[in-house]
Amino acid sequence: MDALNGWLERSPRLAGLLDDHLRNLTAPKVLLAFLAVFASSRVLAYFRNLKIMNYVPGLRPLFHPLWFPGAFLPSTWWNMGIRYPWNNRTTLYKRFRSEVISLVPLISGDPSFYTNNLDVARQVIVGGHKTSFVKPEYASRILLLWGMNLLAADGEMWRKHRRILGPAFSNKLYEYVWNESVQTFKEMVSNDGWSNKKSIDVPVLQRTTFKFALFIIGKCGFGFPFVWSEPPTAPDGTMTIQEALRLTTDAFLTMIMVPKWVFKLPIKSLRKLQAARDQLTDFMQSQVEEKRKDLRNGMSVRDDVFTRLVQANENEESKYRLSDEELVSSLCFVQLGKQIGNVFIMLFAGHETTAHTLAATIGFMAYFAEIQEEVHEHIVSVIGRSHDPTWDDFSKLDKVTAVFLESLRLFPSGHVMIREAREDTVLNIPGSDGDEGTRTIPIVKGTQVVVDMIGVQYNPRYFDEPEKFKPSRWHGVPAESEAFTAFSVGPRACLGRKFGMTEAIAFLTMLMREWRVEPLLSVGETKEQWRERVLDAELVITLGVSDMPVRFVKRD
Ligand code: HEM
Ligand SMILES: *[C@@H]1O[C@H](CO)[C@@H](O)[C@H](O)[C@H]1NC(C)=O
Ligand SMILES: *[C@@H]1O[C@H](CO)[C@@H](O)[C@H](O)[C@H]1NC(C)=O
Predict the structure, then answer these.
(1) What residues make up the domain containing 400?
(2) Distance CA 335, CA 257 (A)
(3) How large is the average pLDDT for residues 210-231?
(4) Fewest CB within 10 A of the end CB: N or C in the chain?
(5) Which positions bind heme (predicted)?
(6) Using the 8-state DSSP alphabet, how is residue 19 labeled?
(7) Which ligand places an atom closest to the C-alpha of 65?
(8) pLDDT (tens digit per residue) in 63-107
(9) Which of 87, 92, 93, 116 to mutate to test the pocket of ligand 2 (most atoms within 8 A of CB)?
(10) How many domains does the chain have?
(11) With contact defined as beta carbons under 8 Å apart, do 461 and 416 qualify?
């Protein structure tokens, strides 16, 4: 364009002619001209991108499946959509005979490499300042993908945050999580009226698992005073904090994507969200104030995630200090371009994934009755029929752990991990089974690499019959084993892995000891149809199963 302008300035006569010509154009013609310019610029960009991607074979969709608008449109023949890697989980990489494929969109989104290979994943998911790959800011800021990055746009920031939070994740915390999970389960049974029933129909199991997981992260990670029986609205008509949290985390995507002023429009559901957000912000601010006061007065406080966040904020000398912004103010986590507060990230990351996986696990138990019986007997043999299980029992309940891990493998709730090359570098790609040698592809600065977690978990290189539910693969495998990869791998892997497993194993143990779970079929539905309907993925920010209808039957 600059070149054209320069040229026109130097040739006034021609510019005049062009001017006349333009004046004669009608609106549709102008539009057409724009379209033609746009189309040719896209075509040029497309060929440039193919070159950048080294002509690695792969997909050539109109829109990137993780970007506007592709991510929000259904997966159909003209749009990959966010479901594509799920729909094609057993065929995608086979079709291209490679564990790294390229994705070059024609209209919107950056070209990316997609991989289902762990060696490649390990090259891009690394922490620290030496790495060539970073989490792109947009991945944590805007949509879908994993807000959870400990605010780490670069390696140094990530280290700082991980160092602040890491020590809170100790055995002492896990024991507390275990205790609270057992107590909360009991509270649920007595408050939700399960105690005197022989069977309970639960149309959407996720309502329970989400409430449970939010409860545990709120209580154990933040020390929030949650009570299971508390109704969603207080007597004075204001919603409770639990309810406000529930509403805002459910509408997380809306809250991040939609500009603030929209919430001021007279639309009831948006107004309600706004009220929830306001209440939550007030609540968080008062919690921070209180914690600050306690810390300043030298009171003894629980060493949890929240305390550490506030402490880091207090400690001005420390080079790991968080700004107020980093801590909570961005709790109003709205506008594009603003980071989401660490507090909120931890609340969100700390419950969505676990809650989804719990629902999937219980769904698999309902479907595979025999495996369920085996797990039930295992539970009774480890903890008996009447005592509350203790934290010491966690490591002995390996068959419960196995069904949880296998469900998470088949429905990896963290379904994508995105990294961007911050300098020119290379990726080493191991050869497929037949050929030994490693290939190297150059990676240009700014190129994205997407670790397709669904692809990894369904990769036959790592699992035989990967699409089958076989919890026995995890029998005798320690809970921390690197063989289990759905919490990511390496130094940057999930910080809450043991936290999430602890609460999940406690919940499943309590549930399956006393209750048998069955599919809750709709009228005329077979068990097989139930499986197809329910044990299917829903993908948004995290991946889960569809609304899960089950029946709990009390065991004698
Ligand atoms: C089934 C449960 C969970 C799954 C499948 C899961 C999965 C993951 C994955 C795949 C990552 C890496 C994301 C990336 O690198 O882009 C991650 C990171 C993280 N997770 Fe989890 N997670 C779970 C539970 C939790 C819980 C309960 C907490 C908190 C209590 C938590 C806190 C975090 C944090 C803070 C990070 C960022 C770590 C870092 O950047 O160093 N997660 N998780
Ligand atoms: C992906 O799945 C769709 C159906 O969901 C199918 O039509 C398409 O051929 C698949 N593509 C690949 C590469 O396997
Ligand atoms: C967990 O419960 C056990 C037994 O009730 C108790 O001895 C222990 O101190 C509790 N631990 C924590 C961290 O709450």
Answers:
(1) 159-414+486-554
(2) 7
(3) 89
(4) C
(5) 494
(6) H
(7) 2
(8) 999 887 888 788 999 999 989 999 999 999 999 999 999 999 999
(9) 87
(10) 1
(11) no
